[in-house]
UniProtKB/TrEMBL annotation:
PANTHER family: EXPORTED PROTEIN (PTHR40032:SF1), EXPORTED PROTEIN-RELATED (PTHR40032). It comes from Bacillus cereus. Cell wall-binding repeats lie at residues 60-79, 80-99, 100-119, 125-144, 145-164. It holds the Pfam family Choline_bind_3. Residues 1-24 form the signal peptide. This is Putative amidase domain-containing protein. Residues 375-533 form the Putative amidase domain. It comes from the Bacteria. Keywords: Repeat, Signal.
């Protein structure tokens, strides 16, 4: 339709015939002596930037048809341009003064001006209009509507070109299928239904069919495929290597040049997990499993297996063999393997949580007490706000090495008074990443070097270290529970349903009781005190929240 509109617009503009007359002398009112000169003439006259038309020496007003085009002159005789309301009807006149008809794009909006000579030629249309066999809706200002529309209790969807949708429509922003009858009204069903002999689930909120995502229903997670059908065998033998190849094939087909191991590749995966930014990929038949791969990639990349690199080293594999990373060592790991691995880790978490409930002490020495005994959440929040969109040179930057999110959260906790825990003597001869403890060390030299614990930088390891030291650990799919269960200074992590891998950490840096929302700050998709509803696009889907309650 956009081509059709452009052509009509071009035709409308080309119909202008230039008045082609000389300028008059400047005057607010046409002088009598000048008027006399036009007593026997017909044509255009410009006075102070306004155009007038004379016929046999008489200045014309109102509607005038000139050389096949319509013009309108007000009571003073001045030619009108732009939007004009005449006898309670709106018309649009080109800068040349010609009345426009048909499709017109004006200041970014599309309008439809009656092209038929039926007594209302050029009149701006509003409401429902049938144009060349398709239905469109124009609001009270005449602008064509796109997207969702609710009228008289019925819901409609107007496509990107304004046409009313009938039948099934996939909406990228929602990642759902919606059904509309022949009148364009949405067919509303809710909950579990059978479609084409397969189970589907309609959202109780907007009656959309969940598609290519995980959804939490009655204390259980379910996977739905690209057509919205429930996937009964989610954790199959698809390997990470196969999923990586599927993603790289998609890149090639769509002109995406990111390479495995680069910061650009990493941020692409993070953006998909957080926001499903590439909406075309979100319709890939293997999308839910590609997200499993993405979570595993971040986990493996942030184990610190690569050699240390300074902040000055480019976050790319180009020209830096030490920074090269691949998933070859886990290429044969299956979705089923990952699920079994994370289930085993979760079972250990449950045992430890029960132990903490019985005793206020941790398994370590009495000097390492539970977090709230010495934690200053205000100091942690202030640090997070200061460094949310920049980097502190006292610490290594993990961007491009699995993400800097947990590294950033660890820094904030340390600023809030959480004590580092060194498992022994740490020096430049130590491994870059050490298992055990919780620490980060910078060593000065011509090029600063760093040594860290896996719990300082890796999401899973951070959880394993801090969950037993938290006053409470809550896993939830409810955004309201996140609001009620967290406070500034607490940490929130994301755990992907398609495999169970924890893949992201952030800090709560604010709370708004009137809006019932929290504000978060994070690295790897840097955000500073932003409403978490603007970050996480999929409430009740794909990843659950884990609240590590560190405040009183």
């Amino acid at each position: 339709m956009s081509i059709k509109k452009s052509l009509i617009l071009a035709i409308g503009v080309c119909c202008f015939i230039s008045p082609g007359i000389s300028r008059a002398e400047s005057s607010d009112i046409i002088p009598s002596e000048k008027t006399a000169q036009y007593a026997t003439t017909t044509g255009w006259k410009e006075v102070d930037g306004k155009w007038y038309y004379y016929k046999d020496g008489v200045m014309q007003t109102g509607w005038q048809s000139l050389q096949g085009a319509w013009y309108y002159f007000n009571a003073s005789g001045a030619m009108q341009t732009g939007w004009q309301q005449i006898n309670e009807t709106w018309y649009y006149f080109h800068s040349s003064g010609t009345m426009q008809t048909g499709w017109q794009q004006i200041e970014g909006n599309w309008y439809y001006l009656n092209p038929i000579s039926d007594g209302s030629l050029g009149a701006m249309r509003t409401g429902w209009q049938s144009i060349e066999g398709a239905w469109y809706y124009f609001n009270s200002s005449g602008a064509m509507h796109k997207g969702w529309l609710t009228l008289n209790g019925q819901t409609y969807y107007l496509d990107y070109d304004g046409t009313m949708v009938k039948g099934w429509k996939y909406v990228d922003k929602k990642r759902k299928w919606y059904e509309f009858n022949t009148s364009g009204q949405q067919v509303k069903k809710y909950g579990w239904q059978v479609l084409n002999n397969k189970h589907v689930f309609y959202d109780f909120g907007d009656a959309g069919l969940y598609t290519n995502k995980w959804y939490f229903i009655d204390n259980k997670t379910y996977e739905f495929d690209v057509n919205g059908y429930w996937v009964e065998n989610s954790f199959d033998n698809t390997t990470l290597g196969e999923l990586e190849q599927a993603l790289l094939k998609y890149f090639k087909e769509n002109g995406i040049t990111y390479k495995v191991g680069t910061q650009e590749y990493e941020m692409y995966l993070i953006d998909q997990l957080l926001e499903h930014k590439d909406e075309k990929l979100a319709r890939h038949p293997k999308y839910t499993k590609i997200l499993t791969y993405a979570a595993e990639y971040l986990h493996e990349r942030n184990k610190g297996q690569s050699l240390p690199k300074s902040p000055s080293v480019a976050k790319s594999t180009e020209g830096n063999e030490n920074a090269i990373f691949s998933m070859g060592h886990v290429a044969n790991k299956t979705i089923k393997d990952i699920k079994e691995e994370t289930d085993k880790e979760d079972s250990v978490d449950i045992v430890e949580e029960k132990m903490i409930q019985k005793s206020p002490e941790t398994k370590e020495s009495p000097t390492v007490q539970r977090a709230y005994y010495y934690y200053n959440p205000n100091a942690a929040v202030n640090y997070a706000l200061k460094w949310a969109i920049s980097r502190n040179g006292a610490y290594d930057d993990r961007s491009g090495s699995g993400g800097d999110c947990t590294n950033f959260v660890s820094q904030a906790l340390y600023a809030g008074g959480m004590m580092m825990n060194l498992p022994g003597e740490i020096s430049t001869s130590s491994r870059y990443v050490t298992d055990g403890g919780w620490f980060s060390r910078r060593f000065e030299s011509s090029v600063p070097t760093y040594r860290v614990s896996s719990s300082w930088i890796n999401v899973e390891m951070f959880y394993s270290y801090w969950a037993p030291r938290s006053t409470m650990v809550t896993k939830t799919w409810s955004p309201m529970q996140v609001y009620y269960g967290s406070s500034p200074g607490d940490v929130i992590q994301y755990q992907y349903a398609g495999g169970g891998r924890k893949w992201h950490s952030l800090m709560v840096t604010g709370k708004n009781t009137s809006k019932r929302t929290i504000y978060i700050s994070q690295h790897s998709g840097d955000r500073k005190n932003e409403d978490y509803g603007n970050i996480d696009k999929d409430y009740n889907g794909d990843s659950q929240w884990i609240i590590l309650k560190l405040t009183n």
